Amino acid sequence: MGLAEDREVSERGNGLNYRFLSVKSEEEAMIRALFEDRPETAVFSEEETADAEGTVVTVTLSGLTNTEAGHSLHLSGGPERYTLEYSSRTALCRGIGRLLQAAARGGETEESETLSFERILPMIDCSRNAVPKIETLKRFVRTTALLGFNALMLYTEDTYEVAGEPYFGHLRGRYTEEELKELDRFAARFGVELIPCIQTLAHLDAIFKWQEYAARKDWDNILNPADERNYELIERCIASCRRAFTSRRIHIGMDEAYLLGRGHYLETMGYRPSSEIMKEHLGKVLELCRKYGFQAELWSDMFFRMSTKSHTYYDPDIQITKEVKAAVPEDATLVYWDYYSVDAERYERMFQNHEELTDRISFAGGTSSWYGLVPMTRFSLNAAKTALASALGHRVREIIVTAWGDDGAACPLFSVLPTLVLYAEGAWGQGTDDETAAEVMRSLFGLDLNAYLELEALQCLPGRTNFGKKPMNPTKYLFYQDPLQGKYEAHVPEGAEAHFRAESGKLRAFTENGAFGEFRYVGETVTAFADALSLKGEFGRVIRQCYVKPKEEAKPFLLALLRDRIPHLRSALSRFHEAFRTGWMTENKPFGYEVMDVRLSGVEARVRYAEQVLSDYLEGKTDRIPELEEEILPVKPAEDGDLISENVWSGIVTASIIK
């Protein structure tokens, strides 16, 4: 049947190999592809000769029919002979993942699983500069299929081709229709539904940079519902999705349109409540979705903002009116998103409020991948445990695990695997404890959960007490803040650099010991980041402490900075820059990297500037350094000790204007 690839026995390794019996023809390519990332493992069909070194595990497959039970599997046997029964292709992929884990453990096993939701899917942000390569997405599909995910959502504000709109996604690395069709076909082999996730109202910042669209906005990043050209654009977007995707589902966004009707719409149409404009606009968009055979889902926050005096999403004093209920379409799914809480009461309240509005509910949690280079994995695991426990008690059809890329998409895609693992295990009834996630990471992917948790440990600076309970990212503002102006010096705890040095050592050891497996670039990039922070974290404070002394007394300390610390810091920044570039180009298209290139180069340039300023001061070319004479004020009240969370580069890098 051709399941074994034509390769030398020596390349197959001495570990476990697999012979599959009763393989149906339509399963053949899928099984081969599932093992594509495991070149040391050979796969054989019933008729082939097993000439690989190592043990051959025989697996009898049974079934490939969808049943009333949804997605279910039963695995039994061991250690060298198993039977795998399954009700769907999703269950088959998940079952092979469970098989790999059972075979790695050895011994006998008897296990049954059923997916608790209709769908569980990751959502990848392809709009905040990082646009993953198709090959990256194929690997992601293979990886998540083994975990039992049965869909994948690509969040594309403008990063997809729209016929008749050449400026839509221009110079942004947009996916062509052919690329999306190719990925759609590939994902379908694993029972993974590729679902478009677009915007049809707000969050369209990128297109308004072009004159073609600039006059069509209402305010900020919101389309003007009074401009009929926008409905022509939306129809073209939906039509393009229809051609590229086979899914009947589409996510149409509609979130965070805070100022709807307050810009050009107000000038031309006069004042109308935003709820009325929203209802009318949504009706038109849904009609277009129906025209092209799509069932729509949308973020639910705008309906909740209409129902509270504070106009906030999670306000506990919400009063859901008849008017708001009437605005919710019967044939659309509302997606409740919550990425920031470990509060069980909040989840319960929000699920109950959603059930007042509709019986078509999805939930979106997060991987906390949007705070900079490292995901807040411990926090996202804690949030996932709480959210899943609540979702299982409500009428939730779908679980979405988002990997947003706010402010530049610096976080590597495959660094969020632990959160995906935990959501999958919980959804398939295997529990959400760390031990379960660690076992799956190790036995299925050869990865060490502790290494992934250590990435976030960079953020746990001395004195912090809310680690794992609240996402905070001091590494981002300590890295990007100006070395002389020191905007965030009031929020740098003593011992920050010692902490970064210790973490660098731990991360380097994990990386060199293979804890990140095939994703070694993740460990290398973050280790280089920690190295740079170990020299820059308290750099501004050190300079200031020297500068306030009499010049002659300060001179030897400042000379030491010039001769020792600054050259080492510049070298560390250069190494991190190169490591980051390598990681980005490994996962993503080159478009969007220019933003990070400018930012990282800017840090290096400002260190060179500080070096020149100190040199001129010591040589007597200048008699003062004005930046060091400014009083350092807190940026805002501390959330935990001296720490704060800050996530917008343009606000971190300067108190001046970037526009």
Task: For this entry, give a set of tags.
single chain, alpha/beta, 8-stranded parallel beta sheet, 12% strand
Short summary:
The chain is α/β, with parallel strands linked by helices and 659 residues long.
Q: What is the strand tally?
A: 16
In percent terms, what proportion of residues is strand? Answer: 5-15%
Q: How much helix is in the residues?
A: 40-55%
Cα-atom Rg, whole angstroms? 27 Å
Give the count of helical stretches: 22
- Global mean pLDDT: 94
Q: What is the CA-CA span between the terminal residues?
A: 61 Å
Strand order of the largest sheet: 9-8-7-16-15-14-13-12
Tell me about the largest β-sheet: 8 strands, parallel
What is the general shape? globular
State the low-pLDDT regions, or none: 1-14
* Class computed from helices, strands and strand pairing: alpha/beta
